[in-house]
Design goal:
By secondary structure, this protein is α+β, with helices and mostly antiparallel strands. It folds into 2 domains: 3-31 and 230-382, Immunoglobulin-like (Sandwich); 38-225, Immunoglobulins (Immunoglobulin-like), CATH 2.60.40.10. It is built from 5 helices and 19 strands.
Length: 383
């Protein structure tokens, strides 16, 4: 990497980290994900909303109890990220995609449910013995319909906004319809303790313009949520983003719900895919948990960045090291307190001098107090 490249990276690093520490500190003190992402209070529903909510709950209960999931259109959870909250739970923003072209109206009811794999069905029936005749039939029916309580659930009425995934240039919805974008990408979040979970995501069309039966789709995924409360150094997910920057003011609760990668007043826009243009910047963001502390109760962490290019023959070639990031009592703000603030890592690099190809940035995190080392990485491509 050239001297100029190093200077640009170093300047971007200083700006991002300074902003990040301030904004994440604000997030933890006054607007933390632990406050913002608790399961929302049950909204007051009108008759139509109540009917939609009851219909979605019924189909979710059926799928959770083992029945086949409806799939009238494509819906999928594309990616998850994991961060520690001030309360010690794990904050999980995720991105979902919806095949909007299958819907004749963009208004949908959205419900998601997060269930621990260790949770037992409500009124656990596993210890009851089977009887004969009618008693056994009733017990079998009760077992079949029993579902485990959720660790987190949410209900929302929203519209699949074309702005979230613009239609291809030159295309327009059919006359007389309000058809949603071909593919809509949205982000939401939940927070739970570490562990194994089943995540259920359900969408229901509210007002199909063709007056036919509303379409419903459910996807289910099993995920492992990390627990960041142990004694060892750990990191959040490494988020590769299009943009990281400060907001003028905190988001409202509804805005936060729709933009879960915003932490306090720090806006993070995750990258869709891995491909960047040469005119763009590569931004990476992560948090470092449980570092050792020196006599002054400050961390002393060195973060090093190495760029590797993937060759056509499958081999890899180291092409550059970026300026390291030093996080200690001399570089952190004087008010930094590991019990109140998050230790933020990351940087931004302009890509105009990168060759076209596929790359990886390796991130080596060295805790100089404990001697522990972690390595993380992020793939990207330049075109």
């Amino acid at each position: 990497m050239s001297t100029r490249r190093r200077a640009c990276a170093s300047h971007a690093l200083g700006v991002i980290i300074a902003v990040a520490i301030v904004c994440v500190s604000i997030a933890l003190v006054s607007a933390s994900p632990a406050t913002q992402q608790k399961p929302p209070a049950a909204p007051k529903l009108d008759k139509d909303q109540l009917q939609n909510a009851q219909a979605l709950k019924a189909v979710l209960d059926a799928v959770q109890s083992g029945q086949a999931a409806p799939s009238d259109f494509a819906v999928a959870i594309e990616s998850y990220s994991f961060f520690r909250t001030a309360a010690g739970q794990t904050y999980v923003p995720f991105t979902l995609t919806v095949d909007g072209k299958a819907l004749t109206d963009p208004s949908v009811a959205l419900m998601f449910r997060v269930v621990s794999r260790n949770a037992k069905p409500a009124g656990d029936l596993s210890g009851l013995r089977d009887e004969t005749g009618d008693a056994r039939a009733k017990l079998d029916a009760a077992k079949k319909g029993a579902v485990a309580p959720s660790a987190y659930d949410d209900l929302e009425f929203t519209a699949l906004k074309p702005a979230e995934a613009p239609a291809p240039a030159g295309t327009t919805p059919p006359a007389g319809t309000t058809q949603a974008a071909p593919v809509v990408r949205m982000s939401r979040a939940f927070q739970v303790n570490g562990g194994e979970y089943d995540v259920y995501l359900a969408l229901k069309e509210r007002n199909p313009s063709d007056k036919k039966k509303p379409k419903v789709a459910i996807c289910k995924q099993t995920i492992t949520v990390p627990d960041f409360n142990g004694p060892d150094m750990a990191t959040s997910s490494v988020v590769v983003s299009d943009k990281i920057g400060p907001l003028a003011k905190p988001l409202t609760p509804q805005q936060q719900r729709e933009n879960p990668y915003t932490i306090g007043q720090l806006e993070i826009v995750p990258k869709v895919g891995t491909e960047f243009a040469k005119t763009q910047e590569l931004n990476v963001f992560f948090q470092i948990y449980n570092p050792g502390l020196d006599a002054a109760k400050k961390p002393d962490v060195l973060v090093e960045f190495t760029f590797v290019q993937k060759q056509p023959d499958g081999t890899e070639k180291k092409i550059a090291n970026s300026e390291p990031q030093i996080l200690n009592g001399n570089t952190l703000p004087p008010q930094f307190d590991i019990t109140k603030h998050q230790l933020v890592g990351g940087s931004a690099w302009p890509l105009e001098k990168f060759k076209t190809g596929t790359f990886r940035v390796d991130i080596k995190i060295t805790d100089k107090v404990s001697g522990k080392i972690l390595v993380r990485s992020a793939d990207f491509a330049v075109s």
